[in-house]
Design brief:
Arc Repressor Mutant, subunit A; 21% strand; seven-stranded mixed beta sheet; alpha+beta; Jelly Rolls; 11 helices; 11 strands; globular
Length: 276
């Protein structure tokens, strides 16, 4: 079966939501031959809303979790690839949530979702189903993004009113890892925070679901993926050097372990997305 025409449209969140949302992607895919797609680790949780069709998870990021089929879900941070069925036509919206967004918008720490994929209805109840219906009946991407912004803004206001703030030291540690592209040594990070490395690892994992070293690895990997997805990506040796890998072999090993694919194969799977 020949590949069908695809549509991918990106949008940025408003300043109001930037602490909680990294970005939006609207997508439409047609029917193709049945196959599989690798869901790779990133520094964001994934909130996905299917406006038609469903997502069939064949292997969860944490392989001990039971696979399932979803029309709206949240996927937690993870360090192993998920395996997702591909080939069925689908239209949907993907929202990249920060770990702060998990706590404020969904009412639970990102650690509660680590390695898992959870039906959105189990977290938001009727709010999730109403949002899905409204988005499905809206015809333009611009209108869908606006509707989504409004809904997430209401969730943010409710979450901020609850006032369950994470430990500031954990927020500082994550932000420093992000600022350095995941290259900051954990010993130095612990000194900056003023905690022992063990105490930092425990508190960080309790909130985010990953230890600082794993978080740094995922942040570095996401940066490499972003660079690799550019219209004119760098060569792999240059990419490895720019993103803080020891060498190209180190980069190749991370792609094998985190994506289950070579960097070249991963790049071939990812189409470009336009802005709105």
């Amino acid at each position: 079966m020949a590949a069908a025409e695809e549509q991918f449209v990106r949008a940025a969140p408003s300043p109001r939501l930037r602490p909680y949302v990294g970005g939006y992607v609207g997508y439409r895919t047609g029917a193709t031959a049945r196959g599989t797609h690798q869901g790779v680790p990133s520094a964001h949780l994934t909130l996905l809303l299917c406006l038609d069709g469903t997502v069939e998870m064949l292997r969860m990021p944490d392989p001990t979790r039971t696979p399932g089929t979803f029309d709206a879900f949240v996927g937690g941070l993870h360090v192993e690839p998920a395996v997702i069925a591909s080939g069925a036509p689908q239209t949907g919206l993907q929202i990249d949530l920060t770990w702060r967004g998990a706590r404020t918008l969904l009412g639970l720490p990102a650690a509660a979702l680590r390695g898992d994929v959870v039906d959105l209805g189990s977290l938001l109840g009727r709010t999730a189903h109403a949002l899905l219906d409204q988005l499905a009946s809206t015809r333009t991407w611009r209108s869908r993004f606006a509707l989504l912004e409004a809904a997430l803004g209401r969730l943010a206001a409710a979450g901020e009113e609850r006032g369950r703030e994470p430990l500031p030291e954990v927020g500082y540690a994550w932000d420093r890892l992000g600022e350095t592209g995941g290259t900051l040594r954990i010993e130095e990070l612990a000194r900056e925070v003023g905690w022992s490395r063990r105490h930092l690892a425990g508190r960080f994992r309790d909130e985010i679901g990953l230890a600082p070293k794993s978080a740094a690895r995922v942040i570095r990997f996401e940066r490499a993926c972003t660079r690799l997805r550019a219209p004119e990506p760098p060569g792999l040796a240059e990419l490895a050097a720019d993103c803080g890998y020891v060498d190209q072999a180190h980069l190749a090993r991370d792609f094998r372990e985190l994506a289950g694919l070579t960097a070249t194969a991963w790049r071939a799977e990812r189409p470009e997305a336009s802005g709105t």
